[in-house]
Amino acid sequence: MRILIVEDEPKTAAYLAKGLRDNNFIVNIASDGEEGKALITQEHYDLIVLDIMLPKYNGWEVLSFIRQSQPATRILFLTARDQVEDRVKGLELGADDYLVRPFAFSEVLARIRSILRRSSTNQSNIICIGDLVIDLLKHKATRGNIRLDLTAKEFTLLTFLAQHTQEVLSRTLISERVWDINFDSDTNVVDVSIRRLRQKVDDPFEKKLIHTVRGVGYVLEEC
Known about the structure:
By secondary structure, the chain is α/β, with parallel strands linked by helices.
């Protein structure tokens, strides 16, 4: 498990990092919001321990950035801001937990493990590829926290592509799995459906996820 600590007090950051490393976590430290955003862009983290009062970008701004770029990443606020309105704001903006200083490391560790257990329990029902998040239980998909307006068949097609991310899927396989029918080779129903899906999943966004492999089929991946 990889954890990022975004904390501008060196002693606090070093204390947390040592304790987490002693418990077999891989830990990186960012000393301000700008460095935190850069590391989040470069690496995948299972959880981020985040202060609010940070130089350059504060914790609220970093949280918003994370939720837009990596919605599935877990976040624990660890801060001296102890007002009820701050706790409510943090949770409403998307933090998974909020812990006030002074703290005991044992409680921080317990909170982190609890968040990661919840994440692991829900993992099979959530598919994340870049900023695309598919919730199988709620039957909804979002990109960058924007809900995608998909038909039932489009959702099934997107889910099938996402469950086989980085695999090139033939038109025949897609038609069999999504429509449960062996379409004639001259039909273009798969191509038409992919084109309509792209209009909703890819066209409004700069980064494209659905790609054509000429003569073979389609693949969903973050390039």
